[in-house]
Amino acid sequence: AVYDSVTKPSLSAIKYKNKRQYLSFYASETIRSYGPLLSSLQLEAIFPVPIHPKRMKKRGFNQASLFAHAIGISLHIPVYDSLLVRTQNTLPQKNLTPQQRLRNLQKAFDLHPSYRDSSLPLKRVLLVDDIYTTGSTMEAITRLLLDHGVKEVYVFSICIGNGL
Predict the structure, then answer these.
(1) What are the tens digits of pLDDT across the range 65-83?
(2) Are the beta carbons of 59 and 138 closer than 8 angstroms?
(3) How far, in Å, CA of 98 to CA of 163, rounded?
(4) Is the pLDDT of residue 164 over 50?
(5) Nearest C-alpha neighbor of 156 from the set 35, 8, 10, 15
(6) CA–CA gap between residue 70 and residue 143 (Å, rounded)
(7) Strand, coil or helix: what is 127?
(8) What is the rounded average pLDDT of the residues 147-157?
């Protein structure tokens, strides 16, 4: 969906007003619209974009993780919540320019310590987030996954913004 005056309030309500139930709608629409395409990719894993532990403690959940699990259950694809970690509590991306976003995310993500020194035995994965604006987050994590042996990284977000 387009991140606009219709979707922005519901995504904001998910993140800041604990309206997790809205994710069910987005997940069911994703499966209805993109389920066959996602199935055809023969994905081996789904990775939600991680949030920093401080943000997780404050919010109590990771909206990307909940969304990823709903997709994973429907498509019978395992979701790996703890393989990717957010190592830096970066500034919120929504108020930054594209250049500031890239700088903000440098070294913000890593693999869980038990995987850092190894190649991942996965060829095709799906990276899931709530909002895609400039692609900085997806790019940073995609590079990390490719550097650790993943061959193909597909990305999916609930909404796409106009920061491209």
Answers:
(1) 999 999 999 999 999 999 9
(2) no
(3) 7
(4) no
(5) 35
(6) 25
(7) strand
(8) 96
